[in-house]
Amino acid sequence: MELINAGYDVVIVDNLSNSDISAVEGVRRITGAEIPFVKVDCCDREAFRKVFEQYEFDSVIHFAASKAVGESVQKPLEYYGNNLKSFMNVISLMREFGRQNIVFSSSCTVYGEPDKQPVTEQTPRKPATSPYGNTKQMCEDILRDSLAA
Known about the structure:
Oligomer: single chain
Mean pLDDT: 94
CATH superfamily: NAD(P)-binding Rossmann-like Domain
Strand order of the largest sheet: 1-2
Shape: globular
Number of strands: 4
Number of domains: 1
Low-confidence stretches: none
Helix content: 40-55%
CATH class: Alpha Beta
C-alpha cells in the first residue's frame, strides 16, 4: 500500500495458493486504486513470461515462496520445487527483459542457530535447520552468483 500511496504503479502477481483474491480487493478498497492483478504461478515460466511482456516495470518484490518451516520438513520436495523454481524464473526473466531491481525476502532461518542475538545481515550464515531455510540460503546464493556473472 505504501508504494501505491507514494505514486508507484503496482502489479500484483500471485497464484493464490496461500491467499485469496480478498487480499487484493482489500488493498484496492483501502488505496482506492485499481491495481492490476494477474493470477499466475511463478513456477510456470511461460505463463509468467506473459507478465513481463504485458507490463513495463523496473523492480520486482519477490514474495512467491512457501514459508512454513514445519510444513517444509513434511513436504521438502514441494518447498524445494516451488521456492527455487519460482525464484530462478524471476531472476532469469528479469535478466532477459532487462529488469535490474529486486527486493528478495529472505529469512532469519539462513542463520541456523545463531551464537548471539540480535541477528544482523553481518551475522555469519550457518546450516539451516529446515528445507525452507535451505531454499532461502540457496536463493541468496543464486542471487549472489547471478549478480557476479
